[in-house]
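Cross-posting from the chemistry board since nobody answered there.

I work mostly on the small-molecule side, so proteins are not my area. We synthesized flavin-adenine dinucleotide and want a rough idea of how it might sit in this target. Sequence and SMILES are below. Is it possible to get a predicted 3D structure of the two together?
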Amino acid sequence: MSETHNFVVLGGSGAGLGVAHSFLKHIKPELDKLGKAYHLYVVDRSSHFFWSTGSPRSVVSATLLPADELFTPIADGFKSYDSESYTFVHGTAESWDVEGRVVTIRLSDGRGVQTLPYYALVLATGVRTPSPATSIHDDYATSKASIEDLNRKIPSATSVIVAGGGPTGVETAGEVGHFLNGSAGWFRSRPSNPKAKVTLVTKGDKLLPVLSEARAIEAETLLNRVGVDVVYGVSVVSSVTDADGKTTVSLSNGEEWTADVYIPAWGTTPNSEYAPAHLKNDQGYIKTNGTTLRADAAAGPRVYVAGDVGDYSRGGFHSLYTALPVLATNIKRDLLAAASGRPDAKPEGPDRPFTGSTAETQAVPIGPSGVGAVNGWRLPGFLVWLAKGRNYMIGNIPMTVNGDMVRRDNTVWKQ
Ligand SMILES: Cc1cc2nc3c(=O)[nH]c(=O)nc-3n(C[C@H](O)[C@H](O)[C@H](O)COP(=O)(O)OP(=O)(O)OC[C@H]3O[C@@H](n4cnc5c(N)ncnc54)[C@H](O)[C@@H]3O)c2cc1C
């Protein structure tokens, strides 16, 4: 075997794990046959994968969905492979030397930093929401503690403010409302005996930007049915929590509201602080060739962008699962070409193209029902509940972490 090349994946969530398992299952064996030695490094600041999809229900009460069910050790997902072929690094990517082709990782165990040279690099560090209860901010323990803190407060709350009109805000408000207030009976639009005043504030003039106006109106009706009021055109400017645990939010209209519980669920920030500015767009997303899913050419050869941190992504699993086969195929093409020893080392023939969809596709559970669409076709509430609201799809966690999700060779492609 030749010198060992490092295949480094930053981020061990849906996107990073999808690429890492594709590499070990479908790409590395082909390189092994050519006598080329590769080692996979998966780097994540959290030791555990977080199924954030389930957090809107989990934050409400452990009796509905215990936090423990949302977290799984990332390293356990690789146990079926030869231990010589991979390393899980628990640490935070702090900087990236593009010229030197090295990333610097701050190790989570306090041992300082590790510099990791790479032959190929995959950026899959995703995005974060304002609250660690709904996304990873550092290690998973922070997210788990944040969920458990809300579990302690919500059952006795008589006032709850949720900020954000996207799916996370709508689902969370729906779960809180349903848990505290129950649901409206037949021929009623609101619960008869609500226990708490639950308010969803959004700076937009409609809920759920991905879905149509009709479905947004349907969402408000369903929120009302679990005792949630929606206030449009207002954003939370700041919030202060006092010693009693009550939070006062200052709103963009100048008002101040106080509630037992405040849950910020608006907007996302890309986790790309380690990347140089010239490789990011104005919002901090990594500039990506939207057809090949390689990073901008200025990032150098064999650098790829997977999942939500890329400027090509619409976010969500639909976009992710469409991108993974494209990434795996083009990575395999590049590495086999590089292994061929040809002077230009360019793969022959066209790259596998990514064709992202802009169709109206989203499923948003709201209490015992929900709204949604697939390719512009309305999903009835009971189907949204069946597909997602029943258990927030936690059955997908094992196959995401152990790689069964990409068990079939996703690099097989005919032009
Ligand atoms: C509350 C919530 C509910 C959602 N519900 C749905 C849904 O129902 N359907 C759907 O399709 N999509 C949903 N999504 C979106 C979906 O979760 C994302 O599209 C998906 O997780 C993106 O995967 P990713 O791997 O790109 O990034 P992420 O899941 O964001 O993961 C990024 C990973 O990178 C790590 N990381 C970040 N920075 C660094 C660093 N500097 N160094 C090392 N590691 C780092 C993080 O710890 C994390 O593990 C939801 C998102 C949220 C927040």
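Reply from a structural biologist on the board:
Welcome over. Reading the output above for you: The chain is about 25% helix and 25% strand. The first helix runs from residue 14 to 33. Happy to explain the token format if needed.
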